[in-house]
């Protein structure tokens, strides 16, 4: 099982100076730089840190620009019928949540959304008629955005 010999890295190599605090991304240890630059680090310098949970919606709103949340309005026969009653249909990013969709509608169209419903669209196999080549239609998400009476969104 042990084909490779595992050895410890030698500590006599000169290390490059680092910042005051170094954190590992997916680790539970944080190392602090020693006060003097020539002193080597020891195991006693390491401290354990508890991971704090961050809400997924806050991560998405920071990572994605709100203009990337709403991809395009979904203009179909059903969508135009429902739009008369104040419900608009959009194709949205796969990582979008109801909260980020509300924020994007408010920022882009300057209208407050009362409610947002999300529907996941599954991927489907499609066969071309003439050459009989099998392809895949991509999956996605669409969102139904409910507005107050009197509020409207104009698509240009």
What does this structure look like?
The protein is 17% helix and 29% strand. The strands form three sheets. It has a four-stranded antiparallel β-sheet, with helices on both faces. A three-stranded antiparallel β-sheet has the order 1-2-3, with no helix packed on it. The protein has a domain at 56-147: Alpha-Beta Plaits. It has helices at residues 56-63, 77-83, 98-109, and strands at 21-23, 29-32, 46-48, 70-73, 87-92, 113-121, 124-127, 134-137, 140-147. It is built from three helices and nine strands. The chain is of the alpha+beta class. The N and C termini lie far apart (66 Å). β7 (124-127) and β8 form a beta hairpin.
What are the main properties of this structure?
156 residues, alpha+beta, Alpha-Beta Plaits, four-stranded antiparallel sheet, three-stranded antiparallel sheet, 29% strand
Distance between the termini: 66 Å
Structural class of the secondary elements?
alpha+beta
C-alpha-based Rg, rounded: 26 Å
Under CATH at level 1, the class of the domain at 56-147 stands as Alpha Beta
Order of helices and strands: EEEHEHEHEEEE
CATH topology of the domain at 56-147: Alpha-Beta Plaits
CATH superfamily descriptor of the domain at 56-147: RRM (RNA recognition motif) domain
Biggest sheet character? 4 strands, antiparallel
Strand content: 25-35%
From the 3D coordinates, which CATH architecture of the domain at 56-147 would you assign? 2-Layer Sandwich
Number of helices: 3
Low-confidence stretches: none
The pLDDT mean sits at 77
């Amino acid at each position: 099982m042990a084909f490779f010999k595992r050895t410890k890295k030698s500590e006599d190599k000169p290390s490059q100076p680092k910042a005051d605090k170094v954190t590992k991304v997916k680790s539970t240890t944080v190392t602090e730089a020693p006060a003097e630059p020539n002193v080597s680090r020891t195991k006693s310098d390491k401290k354990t840190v508890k991971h704090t949970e961050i809400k997924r919606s806050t991560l998405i709103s920071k990572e994605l620009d709100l203009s990337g949340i709403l991809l395009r309005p979904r203009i179909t026969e059903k969508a135009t019928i429902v739009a008369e009653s104040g419900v608009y249909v959009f194709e949205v990013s796969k990582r979008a949540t109801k909260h980020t969709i509300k924020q994007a509608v408010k920022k882009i169209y300057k209208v407050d959304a009362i409610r947002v419903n999300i529907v996941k669209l599954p991927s489907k196999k499609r066969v071309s008629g003439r050459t009989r080549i099998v392809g895949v239609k991509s999956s996605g998400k669409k969102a139904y955005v409910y507005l107050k009476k009197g509020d409207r969104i104009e698509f240009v």
